[in-house]
Amino acid sequence: MGAREAVPLLGGYIPVAISFGLIAAQAGFNVWEAGAVSVLVYAGASQFLFVAMVASGAPLWLVVVMSLLINARHLVYGPNIAQWLPRSRWWPWLMHGLTDQIFALSHTRLPLLPESERMGWFTGAMVVAWFSWIGGTILGVVAGAELTHRWPLLGEVMPFALPALFLVLLAPRFNSRIWAIALGTTILSALLLKLSGLPNAAIPIAAACGALLYLAVDAKTRKGKASHG
């Protein structure tokens, strides 16, 4: 079930993975090296940064530190879905497959599944997503230049694949008042910061604003229910 439900994610994963493979090839990585990065690192933004920093001759320690900082969001992801996961010795390995999109999908689907099905669902979803990313990377290294040369529009469209995928995953959340308020605030804050010339601060500050507003509205709602109970 998880594998089937993860298939729509491929529309976002494969184009961006092809972009990564193409950029890695341009930076001097061969197919095995670029493929190894996608197998072992498997973190889109960190991989692009990794390739750029290695190509520029940055020290390894700085590459590692920057990659860890970018992936610090997983400190939030993990606890948020841990409540829905059954105990298993395999989770430390399976968490390698926890990406932004798998988190969003898991956060929606796991609470609806019986506990006995959650392990299989997550395994299927993460394996499909991971393998598509690896395959897209290899395709990008081998044929990315040819693809974008033959179809120039493809090179323009690929960077928008993941943002479009996020919009699809977020859209169902707008049917809830609390989520609509939090997401709307996050989007508006990010847009205002971007237009104000603060693009690097837009994502973390907007995310913090949305999260704090969600917690505030949730606390007020709980308090109201308690007082009427």
Tally of domains: 2
Number of strands: 0
pLDDT under 50 segments (min length 5)?
A: none
Distance between the termini: 39 Å
Number of helices: 13
Mean pLDDT: 80
Describe this protein's structure:
The protein is mainly α. It folds into two domains: 164 residues, no CATH class; 54 residues. Helix content is 78%, strand content 0%. It is globular, with a radius of gyration of 19 Å. The chain starts with a helix and ends with a helix. Belongs to the AzlC family. It holds the Pfam family AzlC. This is AzlC family ABC transporter permease.
How are the SSEs ordered, and which strands pair?
Elements: H1 2-6, H2 10-26, H3 31-40, H4 44-55, H5 60-70, H6 74-82, H7 91-94, H8 100-109, H9 115-150, H10 152-157, H11 161-170, H12 177-195, H13 199-228
Q: Which properties best describe this structure?
A:
229 residues, mainly alpha, 0% strand, globular
Quick summary of this structure?
This protein has helices spanning 2-6, 10-26, 31-40, 44-55, 60-70, 74-82, 91-94, 100-109, 115-150, 152-157, 161-170, 177-195, 199-228. By secondary structure, the chain is mostly helical. It has two domains: 2-165, no CATH class; 176-229.
